[in-house]
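Narrative of activities, Objective 1.

The group set out to show that a structural description can be obtained from nothing but a protein's sequence at a throughput compatible with the screening campaign. Below is one input-output pair from the validation batch, recorded exactly as produced.
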Amino acid sequence: MATKLLLTFAICRLIVTVGLTLEPTELLRLGLTVDPFDVESASADFGLMTKVEPLAVLRPSSAKDVAQFVKAAYESSHGFTVSARGHGHSINGQAQTGTGVVVQMSGVGSGGKPRVWGDDMYVDVWGGELWIDVLKSCLAYGLAPKSWTDYLYLSVGGTLSNAGISGQAFHHGPQISNVHELDVVTGKGELMTCSKEQNPELFHAVLGGLGQFGIITRARISLEPAPQRVRWIRVLYSNFSAFTKDQEYLISLHGNQKFDYVEGFVIVDEGLINNWRSSFFSPRNPVKISSLGSNNNGGVLYCLEITKNYHESTAETIDQEIEALLKKLNFIPTSVFTTDLPYVDFLDRVHKAELKLRSKGMWEVPHPWLNLFVPKSKIADFDRGVFKGILGNKTSGPILIYPMNKNKWDDKSSVVTPDEDVFYLVAFLRSALDNGEETQSLEYLTNQNRQILKFCDEDGMKVKQYLPHYKTQSEWKEHYGSKWDRFQRMKMKFDPRHILASGQNIFTPTFLSSSNMMVMDIPIPIKQKARESIDF
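Output recorded for this entry:
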């Protein structure tokens, strides 16, 4: 009883502070809480580089709850911001707010279970649903979404607000290219259904819109028959030109005579060839970089990662299909590594690595990640200047590199990509560790990210950040280029008070005075863990 009275008192104080028109009992019904644990949880994210405490946290049970609360925020006399948060996997505080309320979309009791429409080949899911749970629900019907992210413990609304990419994107496009329909709560508190046919402006703006135009409460995702098994193959290259030529060839293939997933990564560390995402290269049979000719290539190797999906009924022909595709590639002949596993195990491969890192106390450390879209015409320059230059021979996490086809991306969405038919994702997915090695410290890795961006700028590469992070609106204008005018126009239409997703630092909420327009992020004390080894 005393706890409830204290909670009611705290909410009453919040009502006065921000000018809410809702009664305390109604706010409690909607799921508003100022519980210290909830507030603390919402103040940090996966990046662990900023910490910003919200005024309160909302745990809604329906889209109507979200709409009612956002409408109250929009109509409040003093004004406050509203930031949707899924599984908290942002890097630079994008889902944080120090001037309002975090809407915790992921969690038990939110939004209901995914509803699979088997005959129509789509699934309706709550915006806070994790992709791993979407997968499990769909597999019960023998179906699965077409396009994925490498890590499945991300929310549907979170990835659709960015793009959602993995090795299937070359063929199916990003996740935002596989959405039929959305329910969205705008910055005015309006709950709107949108698609290419219904409210298309909102539909295209929200997809890849960084949460600026609305909170996704439902998404209708396209499905396909789920394969049963995956043949997972890695081959190595010492020649970057041969590596990229083969990657670009593989993403040009169509029909059944292609791989189903094409990714790759860069190996700059000396010693064992390994990667965070699996124990693919057995430590009992170590492979040394020096044994594969990388010493003649600046100490750098490149790994092509490909898969072929299949059903047990077609297992007899899978070897022949793969052999025919591999014959056309120019990898190091002695470097073929193959494994076979269930489809769900392949999709959920990163989670196993997560559990391994957690067991070593190495998951909850700062993650100064940098994700770039690099034009095909500049990828060789990037290799020379970054992989063989800026990075040296040490890194602190995987470096992904793989190409995608621009024609699989809808230019009407808010996402910005390079203006070439083929462009590469280059993702520096590194962890800052307090193990005494300067090259693995947060300061060193952050400075190295700046060097990489400076190199790209001075070389005129016209790269675009994926999961972008900028501190000034002029930088955002440059990022969006010709899309900026439309982006700004959609903001004024759907979130005129600029109350949504203020942690992106794109627009300043209208209720903040000019003397108050500073970024709210506060550096978090970083407790880094001593590194044993990242050998999986």
